[in-house]
Every structure is written in structure tokens, then in C-alpha cells.
Amino acid sequence: MPTYVVTGANRGLGLEFVRQISQSTDNTLLACVRSSNSDLDDLEKAASNNEKNTHILTCDTGHLDSIKNFVSQAKESLGGKKIDFLLNNAGINSVPHQNSLSIGPEDLDEQIRVNVLGPAKTTEFLLAASLLDAKARIINMTSGLGSMTQSLTITPRKCATYSISKGAVNSLTVQQSGDVREKLGKECVVICMDPGWVKTRMGGEGAVLEPEESIAGMLKCIHGLKEDDNGKFFTYTGKEVPCQSFDGQG
Ligand SMILES: NC(=O)c1ccc[n+]([C@@H]2O[C@H](COP(=O)([O-])OP(=O)(O)OC[C@H]3O[C@@H](n4cnc5c(N)ncnc54)[C@H](OP(=O)(O)O)[C@@H]3O)[C@@H](O)[C@H]2O)c1
Asked: Left, alpha or beta for 159 (phi > 0: left; psi -120 to 50: alpha)?
């Protein structure tokens, strides 16, 4: 009877995670939204198969107070259960036109705050509240654009501000893979994952993958993670992305 947390659950990939996770009524799910004022109709519909075990909570991953408040609510909703899968999915790509010669300082701040500090603090505060299981799987959503190897193949280069923030997500993952293990023990696993280019608002025109395929692939990979996978970067197909050197010390 696993327990999942999904951030950014009201649309896009987060919504599809909810749809697929809710297929089993054995699952407990904390579906997090930036604001309770968001349109939650699609989310409520997606969770309807497992309404009893789904809790819709507010977590604005760009604001520390909101993340702290979410952790308090999570403790109450879980009633002693621990989190098995933390899916740090919420993210923004608000200035895709910027290149490395036109980065807006405030834009970079915002991308780092939501895309990097968000998953860092969500993980930190849930851990501090003793809500993560010793065998927890923590997934930070990255992008092919966060891979230096892959970005080098794209001419002209794309979405500099976002790409830099996702590169930082990969680095965060490597740091967490060591630090979280020091607290939880060697059975937990932290990875980052590229969902592919998916037809969501962020994916935009030209995206090639249906959310169903991306999420099914990611869930299969996440459910099969082994201790040795700690700190690695995978695509939704389960293939490892070789953009980080990993020496196995995690
Ligand atoms: N789609 C792709 O092709 C693709 C490719 C590579 C990586 N990704 C990554 O996959 C993840 C999901 O992307 P997506 O395609 O589903 O994007 P999306 O369609 O734009 O949805 C983004 C989700 O994140 C939420 N969000 C944004 N800022 C937030 C905040 N401060 N606090 C809480 N929630 C927030 C949004 O909530 P609101 O409705 O309130 O804005 C929405 O639910 C992101 O991390 C993205 O970088 C996507």
C-alpha cells in the first residue's frame, strides 16, 4: 500500500501521474497544487477512482512558507504513514526565448527558486518531519535540456534560463543522493528523470509524446529502482543519461 506525493498535480504531467497512480485504490496519494484557487476539476476527476485515499493539498514550491505548511498538512493527512515515492514534478519554463546572452536576473532567480529550491526544500522539510520512508524513492523532474551532453547537440541552443535551472536540478540530485542517505540509510534512492518531450502546456507545439506514455514509462522505471541507481539520471524509458560522472560512492 504505497504512498505517493506529486507536486504540480493539477495539470500536465502531474495530472497524468495522479490519473495513473489513482488506478489502484491501494495507493495513498498527496496531490499538491500551487493554489487552492486553481481550477481543480481535472484533478478531482483524475483522482475520482481513489477519492478516499487521495488528499489534495496546497504546496507552492516557490515559497518556503507554503512548503512548510504543506508538510504540516501532509503529516495530518498521512496519519502515521510514511511516503514511499516523492515526485518533485512542479516546474516552470517561463522565459523560453532567453539565451545565455539575454538572461534576466529576476527570471533566473525565479527558475532556480521553483525548479531547484522547490524540490530541495520539499525533500528537506519532509525528511525533517520524519515523513519519508527508509526505502523512499525521490524523483526530481529534470529535462534533456538539463543535460550538458544533450544541450551541446542542439543548435541554436534552447531555453537557456530553464536549461541552467535543470542542470542545477541534476546537481541537486547528486548532492541529495549522498545527504538523504546519511539521514535515512542506504536503502533510499534519489534520482532525476527526463519525461521526454511531452504534449503539455510546457511541452507546447511540436511535442511528440502523449502524457500517458511518458508517465507509464516513468512509473515503470521508478518502481524498478535499485539501491545502485542512487544519484543517477534516467529518461522516461528507463535508459540512463550519461551526463554525470558517477563513481558509486553514493
Ligand atoms: N512537457 C515536457 O515536454 C517536459 C520536458 C522536460 C521536462 N519537463 C518537466 O516536467 C515537469 C512537469 O512539466 P509539465 O509539462 O507538466 O508542465 P506544465 O504543463 O506547465 O505544468 C506545470 C505544473 O507545475 C505547477 N507549478 C508551476 N509552478 C509551481 C509552483 N511554484 N508551485 C507549485 N506548482 C507549480 C503548475 O501549476 P499551476 O497550474 O498552478 O501553474 C502545473 O501543475 C516540470 O518540472 C518540467 O520542467 C517537462
From this structure: left
What distance in angstroms lies between residue 186's CA and the mean position of ligand 1's atoms?
30
| Closest alpha carbon to 192 in 143, 159, 153 | 143
Return the ligand 1 atom nearest residue 197 CA: 3
CA 102 – CA 198 distance, rounded (Å)? 26
8: left (phi over 0), alpha (psi -120 to 50) or beta: left
> Which domains are assigned to the chain?
3-235 (3.40.50.720)
- pLDDT tens, position by position, 115-170: 999 999 999 999 999 999 999 999 999 999 999 988 999 999 999 999 999 999 99
pLDDT in tens, 39-86: 999 999 999 999 999 999 999 999 999 999 999 999 999 999 999 999
Quote the ligand 1 centre to 8 CA distance (angstroms).
6
The C-alpha cell at 212 is 500517458
Q: Is the CB of 114 under 6 A from ligand 1?
A: yes
